Amino acid sequence: MSNVATLQSLIAGRWLGLEAHTPLHSALDSSLIYHTHAEKIDFDEAVSYARKTGVPALMALDFQQRAQRLKAIAAYLMERKEALYAISHLTGATRPDSWVDIEGGIGTLYAYASMGSRELPSSNVLHEGPAIALGKRGGFAGTHILVPRGGLAVHINAFNFPIWGLLEKFAPSFLAAMPCIGKPATATSYLTEAVVRMMHESGLLPHGALQLVIGSTGDLLDRLTGFDAVTFTGSADTAAKLRANVNLIRASVPFTAEADSLNCAILAPDVTPDDPEFDLFVKEVAREMTGKSGQKCTAIRRIIVPENQVDAVGQKLQERLAKVVVGNPEHASVRMGALASMEQHRDVTERVRLLARGNDILFGDGVFTPVGAGAADGAFFSPTLVLCTDAMVNDAVHDVEAFGPVSTLMTYRDLDEALALAARGKGSLVSTLVTKSPDIAARVVPAAAAQHGRVHILEREAAVDSTGHGAPLPQLKHGGPGRAGGGEELGGIRAVKHFLQRAAVQGSPTMLAAVTGEYVRGAAVTEGVVHPFRKYFEELQMGDSLLTHRRTVSEADIVNFGGISGDYFYMHFDEIAAKDSQFGKRIAHGYFVLSAAAGLFVSPAPGPVLANYGLDNLRFITPVAIGDTIRARLTCKRKVDRNRTDEKGVGQGVVAWDVQVTNQHDELVASYDILTLVQKRASV
What we know:
Helix content is 32%, strand content 25%.
């Protein structure tokens, strides 16, 4: 026993745990591999450290700097991934299973680093605009801002993805300047401990940004306040117990649950065994049954097929499952590993027994011999396919989830019944529809979306790039209604916003601009002798502005622009047709107005403004007729320092410019934002 390592918790910046406590066993052969620690955790110390050390350390960085730090952490972990793979196989995972957990988790850090760099400001105030005028005279307006909450996040994770489960929660809370305490499921906590050790040793984590709990959470939840947050991934039963914590309810602590659910796949009635979609359906179901040994919250548990196709689907699935070699992943032939523990094995066995009542076992009810030395003592479980022919009245197949390589095949008579069967799962994380018909998709998906957090449509065109039924992506929402927990994770920057506090702010445009760090129309501007395009990034200030000279639009302008662009739309060239239009006369091209405005405000010489790389929020408000006179106001709207340099080592930042083009009556004719790269001064 002395040779078996004792896992440690990371509390208040130090590793805690020397005395062995709960034994943890390999999923492959039940050998003893680790112990949890016996020392009790002082959760008052952990919470205080997060608040007093973690919050200030994270707030010392802005959104952009935290995004950079995430990228650096991801790179550090990626360089050391093989050490994680060496431990991951003890959980029973194959190399592809571990890839989802390890590189999928690291990839999520990269994804949030990228999204943060693109979409978040170089401050700690996120403006959720645009501002709205609240008075007739322009002196009073309102908007929304999102700011760090000043609390901590407790992330409680399931046993199936000990790395991805932590990192997909850590990434958005880190960007939101919220220190977190991670609590992995005990059975596979040794893998979480390994990745947290790496992150801690990297020196890239601000002090207090991440703590780790091995074992029980004790009274941790009782010490939280309404400025903290709790996220949970695991069973619906455990989610219900945690949600009912008296302190969480009393203090209105935000609680987000992502719970296991009875996800389904529907084979539409237009698909026949001769179609590629039929094989895609069978392949997808088999992959979801066997990937990670079926231990995924997104795995397909219910296979819903037309009653006239059930025999063909059942036969094809059995043929595919029969080819799956189960055993120790060290053997090259093995395609499916073990369940995470013998406790999990016992749980799945009991649930299969419940599912089998009144139903048929099509596959998995015979002799099963996993591959590998000692495998007979491991937590290996045969892929198991259940057939239910009365799913409209059989409650068990919609209520009992065997969290392993187990799925139930069930039949429907028409699409309405298929949707009714899907809905009997009482809410799930994801559903898949396999169909050739856009009309069927248009009918089924809106109905299914009410009960499922994500709907995956699979057919031959999508199959070439599809990431599959069971893969949550950082850019898309993960979570589902009802039984699935009712929460949301991931979903791009929305996940970051879950950990921020939204506040409405009212005041003058000048005050709103000062608060948000973003120019609000109507706010005071600064007009100087130096053209804004002649200023380096550091010199530019929000509100720096230029009001241009005027230009009168002539018929020659319209004719010449039409000749260059090839745009001979009647509104610009047909005097008679234009008179009958809503404008009553010929008008200039909208894109001519943009081009003319650029000619008014651009400073043409080489200089700090390096490139224009896009327009946002473009609107043409009032038409510009022949003889109208236009001018433009260019104002520095916001600056984002992405802390990047070019190939010569010279820094640059992103500047958004507010552009208002008006006519001789001071009417707004065009409105948009220009995005530019602006050079920083070269270091001497």
